[in-house]
Amino acid sequence: MIPGKLCVAVTGTDAAAIAQQLESVQLHYDVVEIRLDGMTHPDIQACRQCIATPLLFTHRPVWEGGKYKGPEQDRIALLEQAVEEQAAFVDIELETEAILRSRVLSKARAGQTRSIVSHHNFSGTPGHNELINILRRMQNSGADIGKIITTANTPTDVSRVLNLLNSAQDLRFPLIAFCMGEAGRISRFATIYMGGYMTYLALDEAQATAPGQFSLDHFHSLLSLFNTKQ
């Protein structure tokens, strides 16, 4: 049994293209992340109709490593629509303007969607105190789940981020936490055995949406090795 959830992050121009990519996948996963910022014409209803797996909708702006460059009101409106369409999860950035972020979180609390408030650092890993501050801000925002992803340059960076899982458990706050980059790759696997809520995978190496992301096939091979009894 896998202790954490496996989320496959998928990019595609439209819902049909994404669904087609998933058709031939036989390996287990729990959630599909739809990157709305990578779609030519985002259509949440079509995604819900084409894909039976629980969906996580993310609409990542350029200032948080995504592709969306338009007005914030339009970006938030799509996340609100995802909640109205009863998506399993929506992801909104911690640094989103507080009023807009609260709009999405309030709508999610009133419905069936679980909210993820996320923070990504593409250059490094902050110190312990700053990471704890980020974690507490996420919990105080009213999110159901936090997501803290940094870039590891050393093994110490990896340890610092994975240690956040202990702090999150003390707070009784579900947390997704691991590191990007080659140094952080091990954390993408270790996190689900250390209390992490979920880890993110690509359908194949070419479709990785973040540095160091495992493919679904590679990850399952690691799971098989790890769970083999001697």
Question: How would you explain this protein's 3D organization?
Answer:
This protein is α/β, with parallel strands linked by helices. It has helices at 15-23, 44-50, 72-84, 98-110, 128-141, 155-171, 185-190, 216-227; strands at residues 5-10, 31-35, 55-58, 89-93, 114-120, 145-151, 175-180, 198-201. The chain is built from eight helices and eight strands, in the order βαβαβαβαβαβαβαβα. Helices cover 40% and strands 19% of the residues. The mean pLDDT is 94. It has an eight-stranded parallel β-sheet. The protein starts with a strand and ends with a helix. The radius of gyration is 17 Å and the shape is globular. Helix 1 (15-23) links the parallel strand 1 and strand 2.
Q: What is the share of helical residues? A: 25-40%
Strand order of the largest sheet: 7-6-5-4-3-2-1-8
Number of helices: 8
Query: Largest sheet at a glance?
Result: 8 strands, parallel
Shape: globular
Distance between the termini: 17 Å
What letter string, H or E per element, gives the SSE order? EHEHEHEHEHEHEHEH
Percent in strands: 15-25%
Structure class: alpha/beta
What integer is the average pLDDT? 94
Radius of gyration: 17 Å
Question: What is the strand tally?
Answer: 8
Q: Can you tell me the residue ranges where pLDDT is under 50 for at least 5 consecutive residues?
A: none
